[in-house]
């Protein structure tokens, strides 16, 4: 089940990246797009979950908006923020890397105007902070008990495998 969940998550991020990146060229907006995609489709199904045969289910009373948003913040916003911090730290250390991808690098421009000088310590801090968030996200998602990870237990949800009914006549 864990491998299916990981594949579904990667497919969902890929869908968002392929659609959002050419439109905005801004990692912050791509992460916000991923959060919106996940939150809006939580009651139905994301493309990644549909392709891997998974579905998020809530309690018998249904999946409330509050529970859905809490789950989305942990599953999408936490690793997204980690990735943004890593990219920001990398762009300060290697501006050509992100410029090649078309990122406008607003933090680098702000740093130049503020005369921060050598931002090596800040870039390192951002890189470490981003890596900590990514590791925390990975550890959190690996806490799988049956059909529920830590974020499922906190949100009152579970991810289950659904079977397509055979239409035999």
> How is the biggest beta sheet arranged?
2 strands, antiparallel
Instruction: Classify the secondary structure makeup into a structural class.
Output: mainly alpha
**Unreliable sequence segments:** 109-116
Query: Which oligomeric state applies?
Result: single chain
**How big a fraction of the residues is strand?**
under 5%
String of helices and strands: HHHEHHHHHE
Fraction of residues in H or I helices:
55-70%
Radius of gyration over all CA atoms, rounded? 19 Å
In whole angstroms, the N-to-C terminal distance is 32 Å
Question: What form results from the Cα inertia axes?
Answer: globular
The counted number of beta strands is 2
Trace the largest sheet across and list its strands.
Answer: 1-2
Count of DSSP H/I helices: 8
Mean pLDDT, all residues: 76
Provide an overview of this structure:
This protein has 169 residues and is mostly helical. It is built from 8 helices and 2 strands. It has a two-stranded antiparallel ribbon. Helix 1 packs across helix 2, helix 2 runs antiparallel to helix 4 (65-93) and helix 4 (65-93) runs antiparallel to helix 7. The longest helix has 29 residues, at 65-93. It starts with a helix and ends in an 8-residue tail after the last strand.
């Amino acid at each position: 089940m864990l491998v299916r969940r990981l594949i579904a998550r990667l497919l969902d991020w890929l869908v968002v990246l392929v659609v959002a990146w050419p439109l905005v060229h801004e990692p912050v907006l791509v992460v916000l797009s991923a959060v919106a995609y996940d939150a809006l489709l939580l009651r139905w199904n994301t493309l990644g979950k549909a392709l891997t045969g998974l579905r998020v289910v809530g309690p018998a009373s249904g999946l409330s908006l509050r529970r859905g948003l809490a789950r989305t913040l942990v599953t999408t916003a936490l690793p997204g923020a980690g990735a943004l911090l890593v990219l920001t730290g990398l762009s300060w250390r290697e501006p050509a890397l992100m410029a090649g991808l078309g990122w406008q690098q607003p933090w680098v421009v702000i740093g130049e105007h503020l005369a921060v000088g050598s931002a090596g310590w800040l870039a390192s801090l951002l890189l470490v902070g981003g890596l900590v968030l990514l590791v925390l996200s990975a550890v959190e998602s690996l806490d799988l008990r049956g059909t529920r990870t830590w974020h499922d237990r906190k949100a009152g949800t579970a991810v289950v495998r659904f079977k397509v009914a055979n239409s035999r006549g």
